[in-house]
Amino acid sequence: MDKLVRANRVAWEQASTFHIEQHDELLEEARSSWQLFPREEELLAPLLANQPRVVHFQSGHGLDDIALVKAGAQSVVGVDYSANAAGAAQRRAVELGKPCRYVVAEVPGVPVKDASADLVYTGKGALIWMRDINAWAQDVARVLRPGGHLFVYEAHPAVPLWTWDEDEPRIRPDRSYFAESHINDTFPANGAREWQWNLGHIVTAITAAGLRLKTLEEYAEPFWRPGDGTNAAAWSGRLPNSYALLAELPSD
Ligand SMILES: C[S@@+](CC[C@H](N)C(=O)[O-])C[C@H]1O[C@@H](n2cnc3c(N)ncnc32)[C@H](O)[C@@H]1O
What we know:
Layout: H1 3-15, H2 17-21, H3 23-33, H4 38-48, E1 53-57, H5 63-70, E2 75-80, H6 83-96, E3 100-104, E4 117-123, H7 133-143, E5 144-155, E6 181-183, E7 193-195, H8 199-208, E8 212-219, E9 242-248
Parallel strand pairs: 1-2, 1-4, 2-3, 4-5
Antiparallel strand pairs: 5-9, 6-7, 8-9
Helix pairs in contact: 3-5, 3-6, 7-8
The structure holds S-adenosylmethionine.
């Protein structure tokens, strides 16, 4: 494993202890209130109608896996290099009786069979941890069956530029849209290195791996807001904060 990726993994293992500490709350959320975003549900509805076998790259707390199963997925394999995250997600799935299985492994290099997934689902703070976006896209293409789909719902690559000032949006003087990486200074995994794949990098990697882009939408609303009530002006509707991407591995 790359030295920087290994250091990030240590940070994530530490950050992911909250999945264990908050087991009861997360279990209750998974059982009763957790949902995919409305636009995610709309974009995924035609795929979930066919009861796909899902592989979730960087599955984290796994609440989205329970939501995917409730929405129609036949099964989910979650892959995450944090044993704390994968273990806690597995315990929740077992307690809820949902067909989700978790594997502790690095992405890319996902230990599932070639062409075994109908849908690769990922995002919500995932792609920034990829050291090599082309290797990631090739791994997606490898695990998808012909005709299978990749779905990403992710922070917009411009997000690292925005300050959290509440009076008006500002651009951080220490950040560049075109930087290779920066150090995370918020939550979680504070101190870890994030790689800045912009939309050009991501779309080029996906199409170079053989997938066909079907949908790319940018949104003003961030996929995540801090729980302390911070309401940055950069999140008020004028700037991009998240995006969704759907791509298909052609069957011909
Ligand atoms: C911000 S969380 C988001 C995950 C998930 N989408 C969610 O909403 O919970 C990022 C996750 O990626 C995992 N991760 C980061 N880099 C990884 C890598 N190279 N291989 C596998 N897992 C990774 C971390 O352990 C963490 O659980």
